[in-house]
UniProtKB/TrEMBL annotation:
It comes from Macrolepiota fuliginosa MF-IS2. One of its GO terms (molecular function) is ligase activity. The keyword Ligase applies. This is Phosphopantothenate-cysteine ligase. Belongs to the PPC synthetase family. Pfam families: DFP. Residues 1-21 are annotated as: Disordered. The keyword Ligase applies. It comes from the Eukaryota.
Length: 340
């Protein structure tokens, strides 16, 4: 049994932590779906969304989690679909999903939209269910796009729960998508746990109480953006997110990530301002001063009053984020127009 903290590289992580039992089946489904998108000549985006759990026991009763509801990922997936992308939506089980997000959780409960009407049909007295008139236009709009996406087969959904599920799935899906070369975009909006308990350190059964406080020493989850850029994807356009609660750290940390991992864009967001402002940080490849990389920062901001749920004309910052990214991805593809 390992007791000392272990420093995991991505390689040692995958060599020692077991894959989720559904991985093989998921990958088969992804391969088939990706082939269809390649044949249709579509661009594909992988959207990761929601938080990851960290189990504290093998027979899991307790786990650590984080705040992410998956709003950013689910909303972004819709705007990518609207922009003509095929989307792999890799999300935390039971977090928000594209389209159904409009009617799930507590802000807009679906059952409040429905009415029971007595039947006018003398041969069938079963009461009818209808949508309240003031909600019909919105529902029709969401349903129309949802049905069109279903018919086109452009949304593929996969789910994870633990950080281990997430890491295995991310590696496998990224490798599958690499056949698309520059046409693949990776949009990593999931809030991934930074610490975990390796399988070898997990208590098999429920941790017992009664002995006072509980101390747990966790290991660091390997930073997988580096192998993702260098090994799992080929020329894909990679966008990661950086969440901070101290606004002073946002840009410095985004710059460090870009230097360290070598991907294309970090979108910085502050926990409390993330619905109405984000900053795009990227490297400026043509400009270096004294060997130092120069960075470009672009803020996207919308009026916070327009983001309140329940207002007539709600504005979602993801619309602007995706518009900006589609432009950048188009320029990225144009560098090598012969890529598949
Ligand atoms: O879901 P919402 O409630 O709408 O909230 C959205 C959000 C705030 C969670 C989202 O916008 C966001 O900022 N997501 C990333 C938060 C984060 O965990 O950042 P990080 O610094 O830990 O990770 C940086 C990036 O690397 C992330 O894109 C993450 O998905 C990825 N990562 C990190 C560690 C790791 N081991 N594997 C990863 O893939």
């Amino acid at each position: 049994m390992i007791t000392e903290p272990t420093s995991f590289s991505a390689e040692s992580y995958f060599a020692t932590q077991p894959p989720p039992p559904t991985l093989e089946h998921d990958v088969e489904r992804v391969t088939e779906w990706v082939q269809k998108q390649v044949a249709a000549g579509r661009r594909v985006v992988l959207v990761t969304s929601g938080g990851t759990t960290v189990p504290l026991e093998l027979n899991v009763v307790r786990f650590l989690d984080n705040f992410s509801a998956g709003t950013r990922g689910a909303t972004s997936a819709e705007y990518f679909l609207k922009a003509g992308y095929a989307v792999i939506f890799m999300h935390r089980q039971f977090s928000l999903q594209p389209f159904s997000r409009h009617y799930s959780h507590s802000t807009n409960p679906f059952l409040d939209f429905l009415e029971i009407e007595p039947s006018n049909d003398s041969s069938d007295s079963t009461p009818r269910i209808s949508v309240t008139p003031e909600k019909r236009a919105d529902l029709r709009e969401v349903l129309t796009v949802y049905k069109a996406v279903q018919a086109a087969g452009t949304l593929f959904t996969l789910s994870f729960v633990t950080v281990n599920d997430y890491l295995w799935l991310l590696r496998a899906v990224s490798q599958e998508l690499s056949v698309l070369r520059r046409k693949a975009l990776y949009y990593l909006a999931a809030a991934v746990s930074d610490f975990f308990l390796p399988r070898q350190k997990l208590s098999v059964h429920k941790i017992q109480s009664g002995k006072g406080s509980l101390s747990i020493e966790m290991d660091q989850v390997p930073k997988i953006l580096k192998p993702m850029v260098d090994e799992w994807t080929r020329d894909g356009y990679i966008v990661s997110f950086k969440l901070e609660t101290d606004p002073e750290l946002l840009i410095p940390k985004a710059r460090i990530a870009l230097e360290r991992y070598g991907h294309q864009v970090v979108i910085g967001n502050d926990l409390h301002r993330r619905k109405f402002e984000v900053v795009f940080v990227s490297r400026n490849p043509d400009h270096q001063t004294n060997g130092d990389t120069e960075f470009t920062e672009n803020w996207l901001k919308i009026d916070p009053a327009l983001t309140h749920p329940g207002i007539e004309q709600i504005k979602e910052i993801e619309e602007d984020i995706i518009r900006e990214l589609v432009k950048k991805h188009t320029a990225w593809i144009a560098v090598s127009p012969t890529s598949t």
